[in-house]
Amino acid sequence: AQTVTQSQPEMSVQEAETVTLSCTYDTSESDYYLFWYKQPPSRQMILVIRQEAYKQQNATENRFSVNFQKAAKSFSLKISDSQLGDAAMYFCAYRAPNYGGSQGNLIFGKGTKLSVKP
Amino acid sequence: EAGVVQSPRYKIIEKKQPVAFWCNPISGHNTLYWYLQNLGQGPELLIRYENEEAVDDSQLPKDRFSAERLKGVDSTLKIQPAELGDSAVYLCASSLHHRGGNEQFFGPGTRLTVL
Predict the structure, then answer these.
(1) pLDDT in tens, A36-61
(2) Does A73 contact chain B (CB < 8 Å)?
(3) Using one digit for the tens of pLDDT, what is the confidence trace for B25-60?
């Protein structure tokens, strides 16, 4: 079964600095998708960034970028120029394609709580 | 465009009482998901609908949980009777289709407290 591990329960960063959140996953699939979701105290999960496993190029979205290491099954999120509004829980999620017996459901890690210090 | 709407935002009930949660997905989204999020954990799928059909309910505890999505739009998740361990956040999400990298849009969730 696929699993997603976020080894950092909590992280802290100074405003305007850069922080990296770690995520590893376990799968035997070669084709899949990876996501980072942000969940602020309001509880509404918001998609931050996604990566298709077949793409070698790391995804970027403004201040957010990923370091996708397929062989190592690692998918870290880098937040540059951290802002107070970045403070939230961040969840890494894996999704297998929905064929070949897989339901293709999102599997989430336990999350990393990010604090941003002014 | 309105996002995924859920109600109520908070619910407090005594154990053994019934409770229901309501979800209105984004217009035009065929796929609807209900997730359970325990404190300090990531969401876990309870049930997935494609239009009005429950296509994956393997994680739904069917002895006390039920769900429906009439007319393939709004959905209701019910617990009867509720137990202390059901205290959690119940999230609803929707997507255009359940394929590939399709984004799932989440609602704000319902925080259930069972006393």
Answers:
(1) 999 998 889 999 999 999 998 999 99
(2) no
(3) 999 999 999 999 999 999 999 999 999 999 999 999
Closest-approach residue (CA) in chain A for B89: A43
Smallest Cα–Cα separation from A26: which of A10, A42, A6?
A6
> Residue B112 pairs with which residues in a beta bridge?
B11, B88
Q: Does the CB of B107 have a partner CB in chain A at under 8 Å?
A: yes
- Asked if the model's pLDDT at residue A105 lies above 90, the reply is no
Please name which of A110, A103, A4, A90 lies closest in space to residue A47, comparing C-alpha atoms.
A90
DSSP3 helix / strand / coil % (chain B, rounded to 5): 5, 50, 45
Q: Taken in order B50, B109, A35, A107, is the CA torsion positive or negative?
A: negative
Give the C-alpha distances (Å, rounded to integers) separating B3 from A7, A24, A100, B27, B88.
32, 30, 32, 9, 22
By DSSP bridging, strand A33-39 and strand A88-95 are antiparallel
> Is there a contact between A7 and B72 (Cβ–Cβ < 8 Å)?
no
